[in-house]
Design brief:
5-stranded antiparallel beta sheet, alpha+beta, Sulfite Reductase Hemoprotein, domain 1, Alpha-Beta Plaits, about 750 residues
């Protein structure tokens, strides 16, 4: 059988390789069998996810073509017939290894977005493309069209090796050790469909960075983060392992400071084999590589990987690609020439050039960022950009983790004419990589896990920041805002200067959209540190929160102090105090705007309950108690900040125990007041009954409490305390949500 690399070369030559064609044929047959009810729901779910087919939500009851549809969304795999997955479209994810694209591929994406979607393609924070509102029965034809353009959807989702990401400046970056592009390409295709990557319990992510100082490809948030390094003239990689964001983030640990380039593929393969063998298969909540390393320790993990590597049978493709690396290079269409400035340049052009143009290490050439608000680009814009890529470059295009596209190898002298043509296509928006370039996951627009409208908030913040003109101080312009619609961190909120993730609060019978504010993250140094949530703010007050925090930073920073250093210096208590007055929600009859999410005209409510005797808002005892638990979790942060790890661990656990106690008291459930008694009563009344479960995470957050209870007498280090605080915050959030659900359902006491 041909190697994955060979299949890819056939794809690029416009042919659909027989093995890939056969796989798509098989998938098409499975789609038809599922429609007839002849394939088990769970089996088909794994099948379609491995082909990049997701379900999506339809809160507005409308299809992309304007026809009404039920709010059932594919995959409602246990139903068949009208109003089910067969007439409610889903989302198709498309893998773009290291973000590399050519003009023909952009045109194919344009055509498919019009024929099968709503005419809009979306770029993700992993350099993938997504098409929404795609019907499941159309996906085999879509996959064949993509394959003919050298693109696959295989293993874009599911318990697989996800898209291998890479620095979009690789090869042109002024600070890189060397160009990581051929290495990222080789590993992506080597492991695609490889037998050693088919038995994972959860997803697995790999990135390639050319240097350690910049954001590059965010090595510290990946299962494997490969950072280019040179030792004694020899190319190799520092290997970081076990990173990940998700609900409780963990920074990757340095497994090896130098892996020679000829060992790149077999070393990654050995790590995948260890993960496949030792990774959790039943409990998805602990099934990532980071949990394997937590359990056995980094030294034991190193030993097992070395042992696994020694048993691998050599494969020619481990080193075959290395013979091509010395000759690998991208070529420019025009000779490099500096931009000649004669007279005053257009003000708008200069603003765009300042933020969207990067001077390459190759003299006379620049890389141009095409800013895509919310990561969206229309079919017409894709075609226009394809034309420009052919005209100004040799089709050297890449997508970025900040949801933009870049054109590399543009002659600097041609910037004015390129700008005018981008402007004509409405693709010349400035602000790339600045505070106005807000990153957001799909949130409540299409994601079934979305709690609050991340895209709606991102659009509002972008509009307001742009409305301030270009009077923003450079220190503010350089900040990063990242938004997730829930706690899963698809918007990478943990590594932003200002991060937000969606939560909700029950306020006197109404569900009010909120966002947790996360501070302390660091985008630079490959996601150098993770932030912690300091408080939930009503969604409507997030713009005011951004203004408050950035204004204080501007007036209080010392010298050239970065926001990360400023936040660390002033401390969490002072930061929280800045926003305490913004966390309140006025009564529904005073201001209904708080009860509506961004970009959604409908009221975000679960119904009315009675008003108190004083005509004021009724605040139930449990709301006070859960608020007190949030304060305890924050006190744990302060203790950790002060270096009091033991206190931080104890208080974080107590905040979880007290949240469980609040639910027991609200439901009038008898219990022993000891820690063991509280846990036993909570487990019986809320976990065993599944009252604490939500539709998407089940009892995941309750398990954080159970595990913390078991570990409460053990000594923890700072990293473990940080993780426990994250878990405590999520357990308290889940307690809020449980109270809201049961209040709405009027569930009686057990």
């Amino acid at each position: 059988m041909k190697t994955s690399g060979g299949l890819w070369k056939e794809c690029l030559q416009g042919r659909l390789p027989q093995p890939l064609g056969a796989e798509i044929d098989k998938f098409e047959s499975e789609v038809l069998l599922k429609k007839q009810g002849k394939i088990d729901d769970k089996v088909f779910a794994e099948t379609r996810l491995r082909r990049g087919c997701y379900g999506q939500r339809y809160d507005n009851g409308q299809r992309h073509d304007g026809k009404e549809t039920q709010t059932l969304d594919y995959p409602s795999d246990n139903t068949k017939g009208p109003g089910t997955m067969w007439d409610a479209p889903g989302m198709q994810r498309i893998k773009i290894p290291y973000g590399g694209l050519n003009a023909g591929q952009l045109e194919m994406l344009a055509a498919l977005s019009e024929e099968y979607s709503d005419g809009i393609a979306h770029i993700t924070t992993r350099q993938d493309f997504q098409l929404h509102f795609v019907h499941i029965e159309d996906t085999p034809a879509l996959m064949r069209r993509l394959a003919s353009a050298g693109i696959t959807t295989r293993e874009a989702c599911g318990n697989t090796l996800r898209n291998v990401t890479g620095c979009p400046l690789a090869g042109v970056c002024r600070t890189e050790a060397f160009d990581v592009t051929p290495y990222a390409k080789a590993l992506a295709w080597h492991l695609l469909g490889h037998p050693d990557t088919q038995e994972f319990g959860r997803k697995f992510k790999i990135s390639f960075s050319g240097c350690a100082e910049e954001a590059c490809a965010l090595a510290h948030i990946h299962d494997i983060g490969a950072v280019a390094t040179v030792r004694d003239g020899k190319r190799g990689f520092a290997f970081y392992v076990g990173g990940g964001l998700g609900t409780v983030p963990q920074q990757a640990k340095l497994m090896a400071d130098f892996v020679p380039d000829e060992e790149l593929l077999p070393m990654a393969q050995a790590i995948c084999r260890v993960f496949a063998r030792l990774g959790e298969k039943k409990n998805r909540n602990t099934a990532r590589l980071k949990f394997v390393i937590q359990k056995i320790g980094l030294e034991e993990f190193r030993r097992l990987v070395a042992l696994e590597r020694s048993t691998l049978k050599a494969e020619p493709r481990w080193t075959e690609y290395l013979t091509e690396v010395p000759a690998y290079r991208e070529e420019a269409r025009r000779p490099g020439a500096l931009l000649e400035i004669s007279g005053a340049l257009d003000v708008e052009f200069e603003r765009w050039r300042k933020s969207n143009v990067y001077e390459q290490k190759q003299s006379g050439y620049v890389t141009v960022t095409v800013t895509l608000p919310l990561g969206d680009i229309t079919a017409d814009q894709l075609r226009a950009l394809a034309d420009l890529a052919r005209k100004y470059t040799k089709e050297t295009i890449r997508s970025t983790v900040e949801q933009n596209l870049v054109l590399r190898w543009v002659s600097a002298a041609e910037l004015p004419s390129l700008y005018e043509e981008l402007k004509a296509a409405e693709l010349a928006q400035p602000g790339a990589g600045t505070i106005v370039d807000v990153v957001a996951c799909p949130g409540t627009d299409t994601c079934k896990l979305g709690i609050s409208s991340s895209r709606g908030l991102a659009a509002e913040l972008r509009a307001r920041l742009l409305g301030k003109g270009y009077e923003l101080d450079e220190a503010i312009r350089g900040l990063h805002i990242k938004i997730s619609g829930c706690f899963n961190s698809c918007g990478q909120h943990h590594v932003a200067d200002l991060g937000f993730y969606g939560v909700s609060r029950n306020k006197n019978g109404y569900t009010v959209p909120h966002f947790q504010l996360v501070l302390g993250g660091k985008w630079e140094e490959n996601a150098g540190s993770y932030g912690l949530a300091i408080g939930a703010v009503p969604s409507r007050r997030i713009p005011e929160t951004v203004d408050r925090i950035t204004s204080r930073y501007l007036t209080e920073r010392q010298g050239g102090e970065t926001f990360h250093d400023y936040a660390k210096r002033v401390g969490k208590a002072a930061l929280k105090a800045m926003i305490d007055d913004l966390t309140s929600v006025p009564p529904h009859d005073v201001d209904r705007g708080y009860y509506v999410d961004w970009s959604d005209a409908r009221e975000y409510t679960i119904g009315d309950i009675g008003i108190g005797e004083c005509a004021g808002e009724v605040v139930t005892p449990i709301e006070f108690q859960l608020a007190a638990c949030e304060r305890e979790a924050f006190e744990a942060q302060l203790a950790l900040e002060a270096g009091e790890v033991g206190k931080a661990t104890r208080v974080a656990y107590e905040s979880m125990r007290n949240a469980a106690l609040a639910l027991l008291a609200w439901r009038l459930i008898p219990h022993d007041s000891t820690p063991d008694g509280i846990l036993a009563a909570f487990k019986h009344a809320f976990y065993d009954t599944e009252y604490f479960f939500d539709p998407f995470t089940g009892g995941k957050f309750a398990q954080y409490y159970f595990a913390a209870h078991e570990r409460r007498s053990r000594t923890s280090d700072a990293e473990q305390a940080h993780r426990l605080i994250e878990e405590a915050q999520l357990f308290i959030e889940a307690s809020h949500a449980c109270y809201g659900r049961l209040s709405a359902q009027k569930v009686v006491a057990a």
